[in-house]
Write a structure and sequence with these properties.
The protein is an alpha+beta fold. The chain is built from 6 helices and 14 strands. A hairpin with a 5-residue loop joins β9 and β10. The longest helix is centred in the middle third of the chain and has 19 residues. It is globular. The two termini are 13 Å apart.
């Protein structure tokens, strides 16, 4: 397998969502009473871990009573997999765990299927906790389809989890031998350099978004845009669509001065040093598709 063949770190799971079971109105009650159910407990964006930093799955009777539940599917043994979500503001649950870890930090190191379940659970759990009221009339909503929809008790409208598409782009030089990375203002003085990203606007294609975002943030016109893969990023509900693009003219690169404070061209040798933890800059974490795009370029 080459670097080009490796999917982004949070998109490697092969999981059974068992979506056909969601219409069973008694499903959530049954899986909460079944000792064979494997429960993913989330406190904000953090999950419990064992002493080896692997995901700690719980039994239903170990879950706090105020958690919001949803059905995530079936494991390889056909046991139910469930989500129990608590807001970050809630007290930390007392469970049998060696510690807690957030998706941002641990996602790239987890077993692929466990990582996939955390992404699935966090994406769904955030929506369940954040959308208790109807956006149309303001009425209260009730959970249906085992956690995958909400119905307004006032106007009857049905609502589903939302996904916002966003592009993320590794910009290579015209000859493909250097990579353009930017330092975001949100990182303060930390010298983290990453690829360029932004949300798809209404009525916009992915390719147009790539061209617009790179032009806005880094001042570069693009000659060729190549799709590389995607992964969900539930902060709060994004689907990151990854691309590599090639600059028309390398000397056009300049930061916008607001969102992006600095842009720099890097050679493969410089990127390898940063990946090894050496050098003067830091790169995105192992769970991010940004790092995946950088690794792909280094391996080309």
């Amino acid at each position: 397998m080459t670097t080009k063949d490796v999917p982004p770190p949070l998109a490697r799971a092969v999981i059974d969502r068992a979506a056909d079971e969601r219409l069973d109105e008694g499903l959530l009650t049954r899986i909460q009473q079944d000792v064979g159910t494997r429960v993913l407990l989330l406190h904000g964006d953090r999950a419990p871990l064992d002493q080896h930093s692997a995901l700690r799955w719980l039994r239903p009777d170990a879950v706090p009573g105020d958690a919001v539940w949803a059905f995530l599917g079936r494991d390889a043994g056909k046991h139910a997999v469930a989500l129990a979500a608590l807001p970050a503001a809630a007290p930390e649950p007392v469970v049998d765990a060696a510690g807690w870890g957030s998706l941002r930090v641990i996602g790239g190191e987890l077993d692929p299927d466990d990582a996939g379940r955390v992404v699935q659970g966090l994406s769904l759990g955030r929506w369940l906790l954040d959308a208790p009221f109807c956006p149309t009339c303001g009425g209260a909503t009730e959970i249906q389809q085992a956690g995958w929809s909400r119905r307004c008790v006032v106007c009857g409208r049905q609502h589903f989890p939302r996904t916002d598409p966003a592009v993320i782009v590794a910009v290579a030089s015209a000859d493909g031998e250097r990579l353009l990375l930017g330092r975001n203002a949100a990182w303060g003085d930390i010298p983290v350099y990453s690829t360029f990203a932004g949300f798809v606007e209404a009525g916009e294609s992915l390719e147009t978004t790539v061209e617009r975002e790179v032009a806005e943030e880094a001042g570069v016109r693009l000659d060729r845009i190549v799709y590389r893969g995607s992964q969900a990023w539930p902060y709060p509900r994004s689907l990151m669509l990854g691309f590599t693009a090639y600059a028309v003219a390398d000397d056009e690169a300049r930061p916008d001065g607001e969102e992006i404070l600095d842009v720099r061209w890097f050679t493969r040798a410089e990127i390898r040093e940063a990946l090894a933890g050496r050098g003067e800059i830091r790169l995105p974490g192992s769970a991010s598709i940004a790092r995946s795009l950088i690794l792909r370029w280094v391996g080309e």
